[in-house]
């Protein structure tokens, strides 16, 4: 998979007949959909786009120009990670990722909703640190405590059960990025291994899930991308090896 991000003026690659996800490599919402596609073992293509110089054609798939968007048939697409993921789970029902109990499904959605204030605290800390307020740090820790309590109450390895489900794949991309905050000097956002022992065990288990292993990134990489974005020039192509793969050392002239 090329990690190069296409930009304004770049042509839309030909449709390959598979599901096609429009994404940005460091976008947590796009990661949600990648994880679900991986968890379901679906065949798909990925097109990464530069969100600062968007290719014109992204609006044919996503009216607001946001990622992720999923082209499920040539020229027909869905946008928004939650809409895409529920669609994928319902369209490809083998190994369902949502709870069969409607109440539990609703509880999972409420958990994601309640966790959202920790997500917004993360965004402020990472990209707009001068606007950070102590209430946001509190909201962040409330979010972590909420997850830990939920894991305790549910008594399962993952929030969904013995295997991860939609609720886990929806929340995980943010937990993955939270670990970059202390590396960026935001020590108030560190996830203390003693206070959050159960949550840390859960995070370690998530890192071993094949869908996550195939796409997740280490905190150090998120730190580097965050720094580039916070400085005003996001380095979208920092993982793109296609540019260097074929550069062979030149033969010395005899
Ligand atoms: N609610 C949307 C949010 C998607 C979103 O905000 N994606 C960001 C990248 S992480 C984006 O596309 N930003 C570009 C823009 O807003 O123009 C979802 O869950 O898919």
TrEMBL record:
Gene expressing this chain: se
Cited PROSITE patterns: GST_CTER (PS50405), GST_NTER (PS50404)
Protein family according to the UniProt entry: Belongs to the GST superfamily. Omega family.
Cellular component annotations (GO), alphabetically ordered: cytoplasm
Name of this protein: Pyrimidodiazepine synthase
UniProt source species: Eumeta variegata (Bagworm moth)
Keywords from the UniProt entry: Oxidoreductase
Superkingdom, taxonomy of origin: Eukaryota
GST N-terminal domain boundaries: 17-96
KW Magnesium (keyword) present: no
Molecular-function annotations in GO: glutathione dehydrogenase (ascorbate) activity; glutathione transferase activity
Gene3D superfamilies referenced in this protein's UniProt entry, alphabetically: 1.20.1050.10, Glutaredoxin
């Amino acid at each position: 998979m090329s990690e190069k991000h296409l930009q304004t003026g770049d042509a839309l690659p030909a449709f390959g007949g598979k599901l096609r996800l429009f994404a940005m490599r460091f976008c947590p919402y796009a990661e949600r959909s990648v994880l679900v596609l991986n968890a379901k073992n679906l065949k798909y293509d990925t097109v990464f786009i530069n969100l600062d110089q968007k290719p014109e054609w992204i609006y044919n798939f996503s009216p607001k120009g946001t990622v992720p968007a999923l082209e499920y048939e040539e020229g027909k697409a869905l946008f928004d990670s939650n809409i895409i993921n529920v669609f994928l789970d319902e369209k490809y029902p083998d190994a369902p990722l949502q709870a069969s109990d409607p109440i539990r499904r609703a509880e999972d959605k409420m958990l994601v909703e309640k966790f959202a204030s920790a997500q917004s605290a993360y965004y402020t800390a990472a990209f707009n640190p001068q606007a950070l307020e102590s209430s946001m740090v509190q909201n962040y820790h409330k979010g972590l405590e909420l997850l830990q309590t939920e894991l305790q109450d549910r008594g399962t390895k993952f929030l969904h059960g013995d295997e991860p489900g939609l609720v886990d794949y929806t929340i995980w991309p943010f937990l993955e990025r939270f670990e970059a905050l202390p590396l960026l000097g935001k020590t108030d956002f560190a996830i203390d291994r003693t206070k959050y022992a159960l949550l840390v065990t859960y995070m370690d288990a998530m890192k071993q899930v094949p869908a996550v292993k195939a796409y997740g990134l280490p905190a150090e990489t998120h730190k580097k991308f965050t720094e580039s974005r916070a400085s005003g020039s996001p380095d979208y192509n920092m993982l793109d090896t296609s540019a260097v793969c074929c550069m062979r050392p030149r033969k010395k002239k005899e």
